[in-house]
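Weekend entry, working from home. Most of the wet-lab plans are on hold until the incubator is repaired, so I used the time to fold the two sequences that have been sitting in the queue since the last round of cloning. Logging both here for the record. First:
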Amino acid sequence: MVSDKLEELAGHDSELLGDMKRFEKMALVELATLGPTMKKVNQMLEGNLVIGVPSLLYEQKTADQSL
């Protein structure tokens, strides 16, 4: 889904619009690979998989406590 503003900027350059659509699809696929698999999500929801505190959240929390 290409935004209306992008279409305004690109004008009628179909090659540029096609490139942007391909880039958008690749970005969505990349974001999807960062998350857990559905199997792990199900295990977490069922309580069969223990998950820890995400490292960035843990680092922020410990930094806040040291202040």
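Second, folded right after the first finished:
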Amino acid sequence: MIATTPVALPPKDDDRENGAVFCTAHVGDVLVTVTARAVAPIDARSVAGLVREQLDRIEAPGKAV
């Protein structure tokens, strides 16, 4: 027998819109594509910062801080 726990979803809120940010970049032969979805407004600078950090890791794969 498998035990199940009921899941309660939050109430529907028609006033909130969803947003999305799409970023594509490459380092050498490596293509990086990021899709971020969240309740609008999305902080595009934060998403871009995350992509930049990941590109820096690809550029210097043995270098970790």
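Plan for Monday: verify the second prediction. The beta strands are 18-27, 30-39.
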